[in-house]
Amino acid sequence: MTRYVTGRILSLLFVMWIVSMVTFAMMHAVPGGPFDETKGRLPPAARENILRKYGLDKPYHVQYLNYMKNALRLDFGIPFSNPTATVTEVILSRWRVTAQVGILTVLFAFGGGILMGVFAAYHQNSLLDNAVTFLAMLGVVIPSFVVALWLILIFAVRLDLVPMRGWSDSGECLIGDVAFCSDWILPVFAYCIGPMGVIGRYTRASVVDVMRQDYTRTARAKGVSERMLMFRHVLRNAQIPMITALATEVPNLMTGSIFIESTFSINGLGKYFVTSVFNRDYPMIMALFLLIAFLWSLTYLLSDLAYTWVDPRVRLGGAQAA
Amino acid sequence: MQTAATTKPRARSLFDRTAKSHRTLWHNALRQFMRNRFSVLGLCLVSFFIFLAVFADLLAPHPYDKVYFDRVLLFPLEHASHPLGTDEVGRDYLSRLLHGARTSLFVGLAVQSIAVVIGVPVGSIAGYMGGKVDFVFTRVVDIMSAFPGLLFTILIISLWGGGLFKVIVALSITSWLGLARLTRAQFLQLRESGYVEAAVCTGTPEPRIIARHIIPNALTPLLVAVSFGIPAAMYGEAGLSFLGIGINDPLPSWGKMVGVSNAYVRVYWHLALFPTIAIALAMLGFSFMGDGLRDALDPRLIE
Questions:
Q1: Could you tell me if B83 lies within 8 Å of chain A, comparing CB atoms?
Q2: What is the DSSP letter of B300?
Q3: Using one digit for the tens of pLDDT, what is the confidence trace for A3-49?
């Protein structure tokens, strides 16, 4: 087990290294540099100075090596668009906002999705099951920006129930604040119905599968109460596909959606990424790519470990039964 | 293969039986598919959508890029020749919606075709050869899946600029991974199966084993994956166009229509309503069809 985890961590580091190289190469291949047009026309001497300050006048391989040397000491540089802060500070402050949306969305998506899935599976093939399946599908297939647009139109413009203003990015509104509530309800709802549908469908499929098993029939035959059957026999065995859903949804939700953040003008990571790409803000692009790649790889690793914890039959590393 | 004369009739009867059961797989699948109301609904929606996309030229009342300067932002039915109104520069909305179907379908089909052409051979080579080839493949796929998909696509698009073909290529770069991984898994699993072992024992040449024994059995999961991949690519295109970095201007795209409508939608609701309905129906149709296919082609569920 220790050997397996060590191996996985080493391969994670390898993946991060390749990601950093590819991102660096692609980012510099994008035509146009960060100081070509911004701040009006710079006189050539000033431009040269700025380039030298950020080390952009050096050959690419030297720039890359310098970047990596600093990155290994967790110094990710200074964003061109906001030179008074470090990249780490900017990312952390944006992430605070994104994480608030993300945590609420994860909670709602998983709570709602698992409830829907279990409910639909338990009343399999009934009218309710069909309705839930249809709703889940609707949530999965309709793009979040479309949902967001209609939520704003209906609840903010027509019914005037919630304010149109965006998410406060100063961090003064925190979860629990009353004013905060009217801010988060639409973005979180728009954001969570997609993942909720995915989780609902996963849960339904796996619960239906477990309910067909012999041991469920045996448990029912020996007179286990329905509630006990659900919690002790069915849900425990239906966890594996739920972990898969968790592993694919959580990193996504925690790093923010470009669509949700730009529609609701939330100043989070997702929105910032697009601006960074457009502004050719090299340190920000590198840091965001590395961060997201790291989160993804880490979640995969953790979910693989979670499989062994949930299901003792799963063995990692060695020969797996196909 | 040489077979002794005495065993020939027996061999033929075996062959007949397999041929028959092969036919019944598809037969069963069709029956199963047609029994599910959702999948039939999906098939109808998809057929309708394909019909609109193919005959967009004939069905559209106006050219999609013709600008009527005196008819900007008309509501539906406000003018007799624009049943769904006009957009912010005075182009007929119905015509743009119909051509949007064409854009969307074209992107979906093209991206999935590229994904199949790259993913299936790469995946099968990795799965069949195993060893070092497979090791390299697994690492490459690991690395590529660590890249944040949408952000990667945005970076690529900012590298090349938008436009129909660039969007297709950018979306293809990330979309073949899933198919390759699936094909590899199928090959790994089928390579160990009894009938492949039997074929190896009787001295069947490798290309024949792959063509006759592995590919037909790996086909159904791939078919299901492709049927989900088409709407996924359409979704990707809509998202990029919504952000304004997808399809370039005269060409219509539903995602772009929703994105542009953001600025006008408080008054001109029709600009958001129609593309929304179009996206929702197309995506629902493909997803229901894919779900139906998956259930119908899963032999464990047929009873």
A1: no
A2: G
A3: 888 888 888 888 888 888 888 888 887 777 777 665 566 777 777 77
Which chain B residue is nearest to residue A262, measuring alpha carbons?
A: B243
Structure tokens at A45: 């001497």
3-state secondary structure of B82: strand
Could you report the per-residue pLDDT of A107-161, keeping only the tens digit for each? 888 888 888 888 888 887 788 888 888 888 888 888 888 888 888 888 877 777 7
Taking CB atoms and an 8 Å limit, are A150 and B155 in contact across chains?
Answer: no
Using CA atoms, how far apart are residues B87 and A93, in angstroms rounded to an integer? 39
Q: Which residue of B has its CA nearest to A277?
A: B155
At B183, which helix (H) or strand (E)?
A: helix B164-191
Contacts of residue B253, defined as CB under 8 A and 6 or more positions apart, other chains included, come to B100, B103, B104, B237, B238, B241, B246, B247
List residues in chain A touching B: CB distance below 8 A. Answer: 11, 14-16, 18-19, 22-23, 26-27, 29-31, 130, 133-134, 137-138, 140-143, 145-146, 149-150, 153, 157, 255, 258-259, 262-263, 273-274, 277-278, 285, 288-289, 292-293, 296-297, 322
Q: In terms of Cα–Cα distance, which of B278, B275, B273, B270 is closest to B78?
A: B270
Give the HSE-up count for residue B226: Cα atoms under 13 Å, Cβ half-sphere. Answer: 19
Distance from CA of B151 to the nearest CA of A (A): 8
- From B158, which residue of chain A is nearest by alpha-carbon distance? A30
- Closest-CA distance, A322 to chain B, in angstroms, reads 7
Structural contact between residues B243 and A262, judged by C-beta atoms closer than 8 angstroms: yes
What own/partner pairs with CB < 8 Å and gap ≥ 24 does A116-120 have? A116/A196, A116/A200, A116/A203, A116/A204, A117/A199, A117/A200, A117/A201, A117/A202, A117/A203, A117/A204, A117/A205, A117/A207, A118/A203, A118/A204, A118/A207, A118/A230, A118/A235, A120/A200, A120/A204
Six-digit token string for A257: 């959606």
A149/B154 touch (CB, cutoff 8 Å), yes or no = no
Q: Which amino acid is at A269?
A: L
Contact across the interface for A29 and B142, Cβ inside 8 Å: no
Q: Residue ranges of chain B with pLDDT lower than 70? A: 1-24, 299-303
**A320 φψ region: left (φ > 0), alpha (ψ -120 to 50), beta (else):** beta
Predicted model pTM: 0.80
